Amino acid sequence: MQIQQVLSKLMSSEDPTLHHLVNNVIHEAAPLAVHNRNYVVNNIPADLCLETNGAMVSSVLSKLFQTVIRNVQNSVILVSAKVYGMTVLIQLKTKGVVSPGLAEEIGYVSVRAQNSGGIIEITQCESEQASVAYCFLNVTAA
């Protein structure tokens, strides 16, 4: 019982790390990932802190993960992040069967990212692999 309380306290942290936030999104998307025989690897550094609105980033990431996982089968999806000054770039790389509808569906997610001040781009999309990037400013709103 005490372990669950500690875990829930860590999970409800106001300033989560990006690694933690992505783990939560992966957990939410797990049933769909299993259904499509995908395996998601979170390769984001455990200490990368979010300064921006975590709920907004989580909302975009959740939709992005659902879209990618729904349109990819038999794949390992590698999630990584890099920081460039005040900008964070999150990348999802896949290697498996990619649906031709991925690019169109990413367009819908891109609108959500733009509304939050970010951008989503497919940097490569072929029948065997895709690379999707989500970039946003990691600054506290004034």
Counting structural domains, the number is: 1
Helix content: 40-55%
Helix and strand succession? HHEHEEHEE
Strand content: 25-35%
How far the N terminus sits from the C terminus, by CA atoms, comes to: 40 Å
Strand order of the largest sheet: 1-2-3-5-4
Identify low-pLDDT runs. Answer: 1-13
CATH homologous superfamily placement: Histidine kinase-like ATPase, C-terminal domain
Mean pLDDT rating = 86
Q: Which CATH architecture?
A: 2-Layer Sandwich
* Name of the level-1 CATH class: Alpha Beta
Care to describe what's here?
The protein has 142 residues and is of the alpha+beta class. It has a single domain, classed as Heat Shock Protein 90 (2-Layer Sandwich). The chain has four helices and five strands, in the order ααβαββαββ. It has helices spanning 2-11, 18-35, 54-70, 102-115, and strands at 39-42, 72-84, 87-98, 119-125, 129-137. The protein has a five-stranded mixed beta sheet. β4 and β5 form a beta hairpin. α2 (18-35) runs parallel beside α3 and α3 (54-70) runs antiparallel to α4 (102-115). The longest helix has 18 residues, at 18-35. The chain starts with a helix and ends in a 5-residue tail after the last strand. Residues 1-13 have low confidence and may be disordered.
Concise overview:
By secondary structure, the chain is α+β, with helices and mostly antiparallel strands. The chain has helices spanning 2-11, 18-35, 54-70, 102-115; strands spanning 39-42, 72-84, 87-98, 119-125, 129-137.
